[in-house]
Amino acid sequence: MPLPAVADDTVFFRCTDAGGNLTIQSVACPAGSEQRIQRAPVRAPADVPSAPVAPPSRLTMPPLPQEGDEDSGLLDSAALRPEAPTAGPDDTVPAKPPLPEIYQCVSAEGSRYLHEREPAPSRCESLAITGLGGSSAPSNAASCEVVRDVCAPVAEAQRCSSWQQRFRDARGRERFAAPENQAAATAERARLEAVLAESDCPLP
C-alpha cells in the first residue's frame, strides 16, 4: 500500500516486476509489481548571512562663508588676487635717442623744402644797377641783396616722416647724380641713413 508522502520529502517508488527487473520511478508501481517506497528528505538551503548594506551616505556641503568670517574675503571681488602683470618691454635695452630737429622752410618764390639747421642758409639775389643820372652801369659793377628763407621747426609727431622724406630726396639725387657729383651724393645719402638707423624711425 502506498504511504502518504511527508511534506518536504521527495518520494521514489522502487518497482520489481515478475521478471525481477527493478525500476525506480516517481509514480506508483503498476499492478503486479512489488513496490517499495523510498523517501529522500529535501534540505532547505542554509541561510547565508548577507553582508550588512551600509546606508547611503549623505553628502553635506560646507556652509558658505558669511560676512565677518576669516574666509569671507572669497565673496569679495575686490579681494581677488590680481592677475600677474604682462611682461613689458625689456628695460635692459637702452632706448634710442630721438631724431634731431628738422625745419620746414619756404623760399621767397613760395617753394617748400626741408632743412636741418636753423636759420636756413642765406643767399644773395642780384639787384639791377644803374649809373648816375640813369646812365648804364659799368660792366664790372654788381650788387645783390642777402635774403634768408623763413623756416619753422617740424612738430615731433611729424619728425620721422620729414626725415624719411629727406632721405628719399637724397637717394634720388644719388641715383641721378652726374659722375662728378656721385661721391658727394652717395656720402649725403649714407649720412641720412645713419641718422635714421640711430633712432626708432625706420628707413623708407
In short:
The chain has 204 residues and is an alpha+beta fold. It has helices at 159-175, 182-197; strands at residues 9-16, 22-25, 34-41, 103-106, 112-115, 123-126, 144-147, 150-153.
Sum up the structure in keywords:
204 residues; alpha+beta; three-stranded antiparallel sheet; rod-shaped
Stretches with pLDDT under 50, minimum 5 residues: none
Rounded mean pLDDT score = 77
Strand content: 15-25%
- Please state the CA-atom Rg, rounded to the nearest Å: 61 Å
Instruction: Tell me the helix content.
Output: 10-25%
- Tally of DSSP β-strands: 8
Structural class: alpha+beta
Account of the protein in words:
Strands 2-1-3 form a three-stranded antiparallel sheet, with no helix packed on it. The protein has a three-stranded antiparallel sheet with strand order 5-4-8, with no helix packed on it. The protein starts with 8 loop residues before the first strand and ends in a 7-residue tail after the last helix. The longest helix is centred in the last third of the chain and has 17 residues, at 159-175. It has helices at residues 159-175, 182-197, and strands at residues 9-16, 22-25, 34-41, 103-106, 112-115, 123-126, 144-147, 150-153. It is an alpha+beta fold. It contains two helices and eight strands; from the N terminus they run ββββββββαα.
